[in-house]
Amino acid sequence: xxxxxxxxxxxxxxxxxxxxxxxxxxxxxxxxxxxxxxxxxxxxxxxxxxxxxxxxxxxxxxxxxxxxxxxxxxxxxxx
Length: 79
Known about the structure:
Elements: H1 2-10, H2 13-41, H3 46-77
């Protein structure tokens, strides 16, 4: 089944590590750009915190998806 294969690859240690690394780098930059003033002033709201969490989840998801698809394409070519 396609979804089970996707999840299996997405949970590989190398894929998770790379996605976490990308999420920390890109998410931090975007969080500072979008919420830096609230961070500096100490005026973060619950809404800001939720947005910051999503800011980190987006690059994690994109990196994971890209890695899984690249691995699947590589495996298909080597069959």
